[in-house]
Design goal:
The complex is a heterodimer of chains A (293) and B (232). Chain A is built from 11 helices and 15 strands. By secondary structure, chain A is of the alpha/beta class. Chain A has 2 domains: 219 residues, 3-Layer(aba) Sandwich (Rossmann fold), CATH 3.40.50; 66 residues. In chain A, strand 12 and strand 13 form a beta hairpin. Chain A is globular and about 65 Å long. With 232 residues, chain B is an all-alpha fold. Chain B has one domain. In chain B, 82% of the residues lie in helices and 0% in strands. Chain B has 9 helices and no strands. The longest helix of chain B is centred in the N-terminal third of the chain and has 33 residues. The chains are: A alpha/beta (293), B mainly alpha (232). The interface between A and B is medium-sized, with 33 and 27 residues.
């Protein structure tokens, strides 16, 4: 099936110290794709590029199979953006507007806007239609954006750090909504976050970016089910690093953590070395900070 | 463009109570203070409201753009950047026209209250108030059209600083152009002096409207060009 979002080798020099370099990623139908990385790694810049908010020095952006970058024709951008819903880390609506006025602000943009769906979602999320945007909590602001994103039959949801600052209950509710959204296999979510525990539960793929370059792009199972963290002595770590392709090590005061791509194979080959399952957090930490052989 | 305009109106509508409140206050103060000057003084309140509305609405809408990342979010909605720019210009014009009409009507309605000070409720007085109010709005709109590309290029705060400089420069040029030794000033005074012919006033106002329209088209084109290349 056609990818809902595809970035092909996009590059953009943002400042003297930061550039996006040859970023390639794809969001397939029915997937929740986790987009992780440290603060300032390039997650938001990549999303801005995907949404045509910044010009590119190189590469292409395809939305729903059609070319859609900042340089795409107005009509194409207009048409393709009707099928994208966006949720940002801060509620982007003018603070003096009421929740009902936000509908008047956003709904004219979407031919397929459903007032009934929006009203239902407000009720489901416990949002007071008379409340002003400035009086909404962070979680409520996120829910208001989500209500807008889900009221116009979006095919692709893009969430940029939407879970940052949310309490665990609100994050749980958001993840439930996202899982329901992709359940039919036609819709997809690109979820940028540095809270990797959200992705342990919901993501189908995990893409990591660091310093403007993609570090890895893997199915979630390859990280949480297949990969492992071996807890070794210095000598064991040296042996493991020499034998296992793609292993990465982080040295502590009295031990060494070694990331191995295949936990079962490692346990078979080195039964004396304890090897736990890796979380996305572990994987990310070792991929970004660990030393390879 | 219609969709972008509808969206813009949702914000502009929320500005009405505060701007109308300030406008009413200014209207009352200026009308009471100047009514003793006769029918020209009577139009002071309406002129002030008509002149301030375009600048206030431009600033307010630009302020909302830079609040909470609304500008970036709006750019992800299915509007082209040209739609966004055209909708902004249209909103400023419509809002200014509504405020100018309201101020003019209020001024006309208030005339009978000042009959005692010698202001006649004649068609001539009403016409003069309407023309003065329209001219004020148009001149103010022209200032807005000059400044608007700065707002789309540099964002609200930076553009505010730059536009103050721009307006100060324009003010100096206007004073120089209207000084008594200037032929333009002499010509204007000869055709629209103490007792101007209504036809001449109408023509002057229509000429200002044409000028404002041309400036609007140029400004809109420049804004679209600078906004298209801007990273959001």
């Amino acid at each position: 099936m056609q990818n809902l979002l595809e970035l092909k080798g996009i590059s953009r020099r943002v400042s003297d110290r930061f550039s996006l370099r040859d970023v390639t990623l794809a969001v397939e139908p029915g997937q929740i794709v986790g987009f992780v990385g440290a603060n300032g790694a390039g997650k938001t810049t990549t999303i801005r590029a995907a949404l045509g908010l910044i010009k590119l020095d190189a590469g292409e952006v395809h939305l729903f199979g059609q070319h859609c970058g900042a340089d795409a024709p107005d009509e194409a951008q207009r048409c393709l953006h009707t099928r994208v819903g966006l949720v940002l880390d801060t509620c982007p609506f003018p603070s003096t507007l009421k929740v009902t006025e936000v509908e008047a602000l956003v709904s004219p943009a979407y031919p397929a806007w459903s007032h009934g769906t929006f009203a239902d979602l407000l009720s489901q999320f416990g949002l007071d239609p008379k409340a002003k945007v400035k009086d909404l909590s962070r979680g409520m602001g996120m829910k208001l954006q989500l209500a807008c994103a889900l009221s116009h039959q979006a095919k692709l949801l893009v969430l940029d750090e939407a879970t940052a600052g949310l309490d665990p209950m609100a994050r749980e509710e958001l993840l439930d909504e996202l899982l329901a959204f992709v359940a039919d296999g036609q819709h997809s979510v690109l979820l940028s976050s540095h809270i990797t525990s959200d992705l342990d539960r919901a993501a189908d793929r995990v893409i990591c970016i660091d310093n403007g370059s993609i570090i890895f792009d893997l199915p979630r199972e390859d990280i949480t089910d297949r990969a492992g963290i071996a807890h070794c002595t210095q000598a064991q770590a040296a042996e493991l690093m020499a034998c296992v392709e793609g292993a990465r090590a982080v040295h502590h005061a009295y031990s060494v953590d070694v990331l191995v791509p295949n936990r079962c194979e490692t346990l078979e080959a080195f039964p004396e070395i304890p090897c736990d399952r890796a979380t996305i957090d572990d994987y990310l930490r070792l991929m970004l900070k660990g030393a390879s052989k | 463009m219609k969709r972008a305009f509808m969206s813009e109106l949702a914000i502009a509508r929320s500005l009405i109570p505060s701007i109308a409140g300030v406008g009413l206050f200014i209207f009352v103060v200026l009308t009471l203070a100047n009514a003793s000057d006769g029918d020209s003084g009577m139009s002071a309140g309406a002129c002030a409201v008509s002149a301030m509305s375009p600048i206030i609405v431009m600033n307010s809408l630009a302020g909302f753009d830079n609040q909470n990342g609304w500008e970036r979010y709006r750019a992800t909605l299915p509007f082209s950047r040209k739609d966004i720019i055209c909708a902004r210009y249209l909103s400023v014009i419509v809002f200014s026209a509504v405020m100018a009409c309201a101020a003019t009507l209020l001024s006309i309605v208030a005339i009978p209250l000042f009959n005692g000070t010698g202001i006649p409720s004649t068609g001539q007085t009403v016409f003069e108030i309407a023309i003065a109010s329209a001219a004020s709005m148009l001149i103010s709109l022209m200032m807005v059209f000059l400044a608007q590309p700065l707002f789309f290029r540099f964002g609200h705060m930076e553009a505010l600083r730059l536009s103050v400089g721009l307006f100060a420069l324009l003010w100096c040029l206007a004073i120089a152009a209207l000084s008594s030794s200037n032929p333009i000033s002499n010509w204007l005074m000869s055709i629209a002096g103490a007792n101007p012919d209504p036809t001449v006033l109408g023509c002057l106002c229509a000429g200002t409207a044409v000028l404002a329209l041309a400036l609007c088209a140029i400004s809109c084109a420049v804004s679209t060009k600078v906004y298209r290349v801007r990273d959001l």
